[in-house]
Amino acid sequence: MSALTSSSAEDRLEFLLKPYRDRSNAHIQAIWEEFGAEHPVGAFPSSRTMRDNSRLFTAGKRYRYALALAGYQLLTGEPPSRGLERAATWLEWYHLYTLFLDDIMDEDVRRRTLASAWATDAKLFRGPGADRPAMVFRTQRHRYGVSQAILDALRIRSLAERAIEGATELDASVRLELLCELTQVDFVLSDGQGLDIDFERADRIPEADYVRMSGAKTARLYIGAAATAAIAAHASSEERAALEALARNFAIAFQDRDDLLGAGVVESRIGGSAEGDIRQGKRTRLFVLAVQRLAPKDRASFLRAYGRGPRTTKNDIRSVRNLFRENVLPTMEARIADHLVEARRALDRLPKKDPEARTLLEALLDAQRTRVR
User: Fold this and answer.
1) Could you tell me if 360 and 14 are in contact, meaning their C-beta atoms sit under 8 angstroms apart?
2) Which of 239, 263, 357, 358 has its CA 20 to 30 A from that of 122?
3) Inter-axis angle of helices 355-367 and 3-38, nearest 10
4) Complete DSSP assignment for 59-78
């Protein structure tokens, strides 16, 4: 596919997503303002952390939110109520909660082109060592910043629940089912994150184990978006299964494409560094396939250059990318294509009650082949 076609696919998706993003952000802003009014700034820095991180609240693609509302429209042929619009923001609040914690675990200082929550909170520290750069738990300042970010994450998860609880236009039974879905996401996603941490020091990871981790960590919240649509629409078990299959296959394709971008193996305009995954030694599917497929000499060279942190050189980056492109990229692209085919088959099993919603879901799938940001 040409660069022009790729750009057109992303531009089309952005155009279709904008109304969903605008609605999501309007409700998120309203929920945040409700919270802010109840928790005014006081004398202590801890009363400022949520405000200092609030720029992160309305950043992001809003794929999950769009999937939930478009799925509902596809199933019912009706526009979502304001109650459902509000309730569906639980997906974005919950995702933000996981990102706050993820940045702590990875010691990432940037999120969505902005400072991550723990790095922002660390700047509020006024004790000894406040003039030194922040690193997780290496000084009292870092302990302070990380601890405050964990507390912010817990508050944000509570806002995910409040988004549902405050959607009083929805039947109480629907709200209860959504809260139960949120709890199920908790269990599965935390298991996936735990596996991701276990993989950090492993040189060899079976691809099936990686897929299991990705399915839990990345795909489960997308499945939650599908479940949100199905619960609100009172969908049949067959309809819910199809929508969840679409969400799962889309999510895995999305993550695989993100990993290509995060290593700079394809053209990348992501907000963070396109070298970050290589520097940090992220155990992505790219890594798993490279270790599986490289000849012993190339594998040894790859492992020496991958994950060297601040000691990473330009030659390391170039060497790893070349090995990825020559040995793994075609397989990655085939994996993405296979998941998108399965997602399209699942979409074809769903009712066609809202052509515009279907168009958006098709655009979400199409963009994962060539997305650059």
Assistant:
1) no
2) 263
3) 110
4) -S--HHHHHHHHHHHHHHSS
288: nearest Cα among 272, 306, 309: 306
Please give the DSSP secondary-structure letter assigned to residue 133. P
Please check whether residue 96 is in contact with residue 149, taking contact to mean a CB–CB distance below 8 angstroms.
no
User: Which residues sit opposite 279 in a β-bridge?
Assistant: none
| C-alpha–C-alpha distance, residues 341 and 96, integer Å | 29
Q: What is the pLDDT of residues 74-110, one digit of tens each?
A: 999 999 999 999 999 999 999 999 988 888 877 777 7
Domains of the chain: 3-365 (1.10.600.10)
Inter-helix orientation angle 207-214/237-262, to 10°: 110
> Per residue in 19-28, pLDDT tens?
999 999 999 9
Residue with tokens 């996603």: 189
Q: What is the pTM of this model?
A: 0.88
CA angle (280 as vertex; 283, 269 as ends), nearest 5: 90
Helices (H), 234-354: 237-262, 276-280, 285-293, 296-305, 314-327, 329-348
- Which residue in the block uniquely carries the two structure tokens 């290496």? 138
